[in-house]
C-alpha cells in the first residue's frame, strides 16, 4: 500500500567525511559515499528512494534496531535495488 520505491544499498564509509543536504527544509548530515551516490543518481525525473541513513532516525537506538530487522523486507519490496560500490 505504499508508493513504488527504489532501495539503495551502499557502504556508509568513514564518519569523518560529513556533508549536509537539505531534506524537508532541514539540514541533514550524510557521509561522503551517500553524497557521491546521490549526485550520481540525480535526475530531472522524480523518484522515490529508500536510504537507511535518511529514512531511519539514526539517533534513536530503538527505532534504528527495529528498522534494521525490517531491512530484508524493505529491499524485497523495492521496485529496484541499487548497489553503490563507490
Automatic annotation (TrEMBL):
Pfam families in the cross-refs: HET
Heterokaryon incompatibility domain boundaries: 5-86
InterPro entries membership: HET (IPR010730), HetReg/Transcr_Mod (IPR052895)
UniProt feature coiled coil, ranges: none
Protein name: Heterokaryon incompatibility domain-containing protein
Natural source organism: Lophium mytilinum
Lineage: Eukaryota, Fungi, Dikarya, Ascomycota, Pezizomycotina
